[in-house]
Design brief:
By secondary structure, the protein is mostly helical. It contains 2 helices and no strands.
Amino acid sequence: MSTKRLYPALIVVSMALAVLTYAAMIWSNCGSVGAADFLSDLRSFHSATGC
C-alpha cells in the first residue's frame, strides 16, 4: 500500500477514535439514554455545573 493512501486513512481512523472516546466519556459521566438525552448531556457536560 502506498503512503499516499495510508495517511488519509490514518487521519480518518484517528478522528473516529477521538470522537468515540469523547462520546464514551460523556456517556459514562452523564448516563445518557438515547440520542436526545446525549445531546442534552453534551451541552450540560461543558457547563460549569456539569451533568
